[in-house]
Amino acid sequence: MKASDILSYSFSAIRLRKLRAGLTTLGVVIGIAAIVALLSITQGLQETITTQLQRGFATDTLIVSAGGGGVFGGGDSGFKLFINDTQTINELENVELSIAIIQRAGLINFAAGARNVTIVGVDFTEYASVYTTTFVPEEGGNMPSSPANDAIVVGKRVSDPWKNGTILCNANDTATIVWLNATARPPKYENYTGNVTAVLQEIGGFSIGGPSDFNVYIPISQAQSFFGTDECDVIIVKLTNDDKDTIESVSKAIKAALGDQVSVTSATAVLNTLSSVFSIIELFLAGIAAISLLVAGIGIMNIMIVSLMERTREIGILKALGMKSRTVLLIFLGESIIIGLLGAVIGVVSGWGLANIVAFALSGGGFGMRNQVSQTGNFNAMAINPVLTPMVTMLALAFGVGVSVIFALYPAWRASKLKPVEALRYE
Questions:
Q1: Pairing verdict, β 188-199 and 151-154
Q2: Using one digit for the tens of pLDDT, what is the confidence trace for 46-73?
Q3: By C-alpha distance, which of 192, 216, 201 is closest to 120?
């Protein structure tokens, strides 16, 4: 019997039992759709977050923080970083410059309203030389090279917090910065009035050391006197290049110079860590979705066994007419391949559609997902674009067909082993 005849016979058997075949296919559709949707959203989320991080990071930088407990510090050893530690770091080989950052949670008051913000004290010139594409004023603003102590630079979301045209401040406006000095007895609010010299262009990325849409920036000298400290929270180190060897050698040199009580984190290490985490999440989600395919496979086996019982006499007649056992086996496997392939194709399409619907909801069209969290609790919706790679598509199709064939092997084998006389006597 030709392969085309076997497929034709398999199609005919499916057409005669449309409802049953449809329900069997539905199990494959659900499993494949779940796998495709979860992987597409996860990969889309990974790309979105990676892109956002890359905007806020510079790959040729290191972030030095107090505490040797892990990424960005965290240890409570009492070790502190001071602004003059940048002098020690600047003397190391392959270090172009280092920038001390002092930051506190506070409030900024404009004539049009107030916002909770993170107040960041930096050297404007050096900070702009590291983050050349993100610490940039929008049109009409001016990034002072020698800022007066009352100069203030605000992030885009501080100026335009709701993206609806309600602007709280523009360049050249006056603003009052307030923070709570909890070390004073009794605690008291410190404040000073300055001039907004620039509003940053929208960054849209996460802020780990780099500029953020939710921060306000003041000169480091003003931060020292305003916060009453020379202690800094982090030091950003700009390297001469972003080679792996350079990153490792400078990291070791910084720890050797300042002691093991500092954490040195590279932007590339954070991105690599995130990629590893997302890979694990993808495997975990794919495993969960595969369980539904396992259930679908058991359903396929069950239905094909029932089909075998119903068609026993038909098989007996075919074998009595000379059909070989191998042909009977291929007819049953042909049915499973058709069901698996049909279910997988519909599943891929359905999963892709489901991924886009969920992404739309997560991006703010529905219940909303938030991407950027400042210390003050400000959020911004994140647009997620699901990613369906050719590899995922091919694996989904192969997985759908493979599961169908594997679970159809037993009933197909039983059908092929039926003896004509016994099959014709079957009631």
A1: parallel
A2: 787 777 666 666 678 888 888 755 444 4
A3: 216
Distance CA 54, CA 205 (A): 7
- For residue 10, give the amino acid letter: S
Q: Residue 323 — φ and ψ, nearest 5°?
A: -70, 135
Counting Cα atoms < 13 Å in the Cβ hemisphere of 151 gives 21
- Assessment of whether the complete model's pTM goes beyond 0.70: no
How many CB atoms are closer than 10 A to CB 394?
Answer: 11
Place of tokens 């009492």: 78
Q: Which residues, 6+ apart, have CB-to-CB distance to 333 below 8 Å?
A: 405, 408, 409, 412
DSSP code, position 200? B
129-168 pLDDT tens trace? 888 888 888 877 778 777 788 899 999 889 988 877 788 8
| Cα–Cα nearest to 386, from 354, 348, 364 | 354
CA contacts within 13 A on the Cβ side of 58: 22
Cβ proximity of 177 and 107 under 8 Å: yes
